[in-house]
Amino acid sequence: MNTDKTTPYDAGEIRDINQIIKVATTLSKSWFRGHPEKYGNLTPKIFRSEYNDKISVRYETESEIIEEFKRAAPALTQYIPSQDNNCSWLFLMQHHGAPTRLLDWTENALVALYFAVRNFEDGKDGELWAIYPYFLNKEGYGIDGIATKPNKILQYLAIEPSLSIPPATGNKQKQEQLANGFGLDKIPQYPLALYPTMNFPRMVNQLSTFTIHPIPHSGENTIPDLLKDKKYLVRYVIPHDCKLNLISDLKSLGISRRTLFPDLDGLSQTIIENLSHTPSYYNRPYPPEF
């Protein structure tokens, strides 16, 4: 869903590369996420309204998608987690574009900017979000630090889809039993910031991190519901007429599809982009002096 609505987290526009560098150095402990359009929300694909409308999502759909992926994946790749390794299955699905309850973030603001500006020909403004993940976990669960796979809250949220819980009413008994099985005294109800296992070169190159989300209830348990201060969650708009220059500047700084997607597909797309982005005439500048 595209929206031109401003949010309480808006902090202006990023129009040139110096501004994003200032954001990156000022918010050095933040995670970043770029959108090619002004979506105005931070919702994982499986829960997005435009995605749900396309496939007529029922409350069982999330579980069905995971089970179908588990069933068919072994014939297509050698990297297969054990059946009960729910976190690794979600990481694998997210890596290959399947809809999950994970949301991608990066520790590199320039990487996030790339994803906000790479579709520069669509005439749409992009957006770049910055989150302070430590405060998200502190505010939601009272825990310090970033979760990893052994974290019980993460394990609960990764297996929760198997309960096929109706989003509107919920099944508290099933949820409570599952939470108790992990030694939790309450049902996890908020997004959690986590460090994934780096199983793929792309994740290493992109400095990938994630948030994992329960079924969202607007006004109650989304990231903007928890983080109401710009100090912890902020959004910058990227005007569409600045995208092409920013793409060029990012390339000069070593951020391109080829470096972020280290495979033959990434190489091919980079060659295509170079052909379309390279000006017919190049006037060599003098080097800067300091």
Overview of the structural elements:
Helices cover about 40% and strands about 10% of the residues. With about 290 residues, it is an alpha+beta fold. It has one domain (about 10-255). The strands form 2 sheets. Strands 1-7-4-2 form a 4-stranded mixed sheet. A 3-stranded antiparallel sheet has the order 3-6-5, with helices on both faces. The longest helix is centred in the C-terminal third of the chain and has 14 residues, at about 265-275. The radius of gyration is 20 Å and the shape is globular. It starts with 9 loop residues before the first strand and ends in a 13-residue tail after the last helix.
What is the overall shape? Answer: globular
Mind describing the biggest β-sheet? Answer: 4 strands, mixed
- Percent in strands: 5-15%
Strand order of the largest sheet: 1-7-4-2
Calculate the mean pLDDT score and round it: 89
N/C terminus separation: 46 Å
Count of DSSP helices? 13
Q: Give the SSE order as H and E letters.
A: EHEHHHEHEHHHEHEHEHHH
Domains counted in the coordinates: how many? 1
Uncertain regions: pLDDT < 50 for 5+ in a row? none
Q: What is the radius of gyration computed over CA atoms, rounded to a whole number of angstroms?
A: 20 Å
Structural class: alpha+beta
Task: Please identify the oligomeric state.
Answer: single chain
Find the count of extended strands (DSSP E, 2+ residues). 7
The percentage helix is 25-40%
